[in-house]
Amino acid sequence: MNTESTKNISEDDVWRQLEEHLVKSEDDQGYILPLELCDLWNTTASNLDSPLAVKCLEHAPELTSSARTRATVLAVMAVISFIGNVLTIISIKNSRRRRRNQNWSAVYALILHLSVSDLLVTVFCIAGEAIWSYTVAWRWGNVSCKIFKFSEMFSLYLSTFVLVLIGLDRFVAVRYPIRAISTAKRCSRFVAGAWLLSFILSLPQV
């Protein structure tokens, strides 16, 4: 008799504790429960004939000192990288303007595209991650998150592919100096292929 009474009391205490933390979901299709009470709920709900629809809610992330430091370091890196790449693009453009009557070297074209791709990496990978680290959670909706992740992967792919093209260009120039294929016209086709391939490979992020 005492055992049954103790059991009923403990069950009542459990239900009282759960009811205090159960919150109606926004879509009115169930309830939300803190993560630390989910195991207790699963044990209790297993004895019910028709348990409630309960979703376990994880704790909201917080801005820690390490996250703040990471965001600061990434922000400084983003500023330095942005200035450096912009100055590189301006320098190459001015050099091309001065060499208007001369052949445009493929190396200049590749470095220009590398600077553009690194500028995209700076904006979406470094600066974007700095903002994300500071805000802790993404706050701008699902669509913008997909666009951001697509841009992030696209810039990384493009930067990598352009680096590969620079390596191939230097290999051909050294190994086959006479039949070098590093003309600006032919190089532009490879660069266009790098942009297209980066776009295709980044589509799964959408």
TrEMBL record:
Segments forming domain G-protein coupled receptors family 1 profile: 84-206
Recorded GO CC terms: plasma membrane
Subcellular location: Cell membrane
GO molecular function: corazonin receptor activity
Main location group: membrane
Segments passing through the bilayer: 71-92, 104-134, 154-174, 186-203
PROSITE patterns in alphabetical order: G_PROTEIN_RECEP_F1_1 (PS00237), G_PROTEIN_RECEP_F1_2 (PS50262)
UniProt cross-references to Pfam families, sorted A to Z: 7tm_1
Keywords for the protein's UniProt record, in alphabetical order: Cell membrane, G-protein coupled receptor, Membrane, Receptor, Transducer, Transmembrane, Transmembrane helix
Protein topology in the membrane: Multi-pass membrane protein
Listed InterPro entries: GPCR_Rhodpsn, GPCR_Rhodpsn_7TM
Signal peptide: none
Highest taxon, organism lineage: Eukaryota
Family under the similarity heading: Belongs to the G-protein coupled receptor 1 family.
Family annotation (PANTHER family): CORAZONIN RECEPTOR, ISOFORM B, G-PROTEIN COUPLED RECEPTOR
Protein name as it appears in the record: G-protein coupled receptors family 1 profile domain-containing protein
